[in-house]
Amino acid sequence: MPDIAISADKLTRKFGKFTAVDEISFAIPYGAIFGFLGANGAGKSTTIRMLCGILAPTSGGGQVGGFDVETQPEQIKTVIGYVSQRFSLYSDLNVVENLNFYGRIYGLEGAALLGRIKEVLELTGLDPFQRRLAGDLSGGMKQKLAVANAILHRPKIIFLDEPTAGLDPLSRRAIWELLYQLAEGGTSLFVTTHYMEEAERCNNIAFISQGKILKIGRPSDLKEALQGQILEVTCRPLMKASHFFSSLEGVAGVTVYGTTLNLNVTDRQAVEERVRAAADKEGIEIAVIKSIPASLEDVFSDLSQGIKRGNFNPPAAEQERGNRA
Fold first, then answer.
1. Do residue 157 and residue 17 come from a single domain?
2. What is the pTM of this model?
3. What is the structure's pLDDT at 186?
4. For position 324, what pLDDT does the model report?
5. Same domain assignment for residues 266 and 163
6. 21 partner at 20 to 30 Å CA-CA among 27, 94, 252, 313?
């Protein structure tokens, strides 16, 4: 088995004149959790559909499990698991019946299928609910069943398209504990999400916006690049302050957090002086200004602002390969 589970080389998909995915490149080894972050419409789902052999690329290429995404899409479908954004379950079948149906699709039968159903029921914690109709399960349990269906045939690569969207925090935690178990067993996980706290759980992450990959790297490395450049300003009125501070020289971006603003700055001391001067002039009350470590949301905000300023350069393929988990 090759070291690389999933790779993309200038992978592109266009719909008419609209470019949904624009020359993205990356490489993911087996046993890694790769987070694919971006807002709705950024190109995450289109990327997954190409890598799963569901949608043909317009140009560029890639491999999944050693198979080519353009010329071998059917082979790819046999070696991957896929968990979609929406529950791909039969609500009028119970848990075991759903598993039995999907197992037969994957070519499992007889004792092998029954044994594998028992294993995934135990792994996902669904054993006590095996006779419950899928339509009567909670959101978290439905997603566990979706994962159980996807791993029945023991795939070493699983794609999960926003697997925790709409779930409560405890259910999201349970899903991620299950994903960690799969990764520890050597399975490669490609996870799309727009939750920054979930990105912290990944080995490597890629930020995508308007079809372009903005940055790829380990969460800690990406945050470290912004260390010492984030000013937290506790002030009021908050939105008025955000409007005026975002226009100040040396402020690359502003993110609202509760009752505070995070300012991505180029020169801490100079910007702080400008912030205080602007606050005095505009009648903004400032309680505290302090430097804080960057969050992944700060990183994403900085990258997005870079696109607006025209300062975006796609990551080099060599750098991406060097960032493998």
1. yes
2. 0.84
3. 93
4. 45
5. no
6. 252
